[in-house]
Design brief:
Membrane topology: Multi-pass membrane protein
Strand content: under 5%
Subcellular location: Cell membrane
GO cellular component, one term: plasma membrane
Number of helices: 11
Distance between the termini: 21 Å
Largest sheet: none
Protein name: TVP38/TMEM64 family membrane protein
Low-confidence stretches: 216-221
Radius of gyration: 18 Å
Mean pLDDT: 78
Number of strands: 0
Keywords: Cell membrane, Membrane, Transmembrane, Transmembrane helix
Amino acid sequence: MTGTTTTIRLRLLALAALLLVAVLAAVLVDLPSAAQLRSRMDRVGWPGAVGFVAVYAAATLLPVPKNVFSIAAGAAFGLVTAVGLVLAGACLGAGVAFWIGRLLGRDGVVQLTGRRFARVDAVLVRQGFLAVLGLRLVPLVPFTALNYAAGLSAVRWSHYLTATALGIVPGTVALVALGAYGSTPASVPFVAAAVGLLALSALGVRAVRRHDRTSSVDQEG
């Protein structure tokens, strides 16, 4: 088992644990309902939405879990609004990180992302736009590492941002739906979101295994 596959499996387990915690919290803990949270955010108005986008964009610059922010947005803003805010924050942060990566150079990016950079960089060199799109579709691929690595690749900024915006939609919708319908874990939207995330994660595991096998064959050849 490669280190990459082990990491992916650990993240898959973490995702399953997150879903379990969300269900248990909804059933056992007396949390404010989604309607109450949205009512509070309505009173805050547009500054709350702008503030969330700014915080999310800043979070994309650091190797911290972003899924929690997406789930929280679903609970606080509702499905449709939250999806728009998360996409805006993610794309803003990704666009900024792209140029930071170019300014820092390879050594600086390696210090920020560690061994993940080499793996992501190898894929970007070969496939460019399609690589960014594919890696964004798989939510287990480190978002921050790809942001900085893309800045050092030959991928155009406009192509990179377009691929990012398109690729993160499925995972974003699923995560936001978990928050939006978290108070009713037996509902169809919540179950569909959970199944969708697990399916995307399973595809990620399969893609990594296939990549590892291809790399092994290339090295042997």
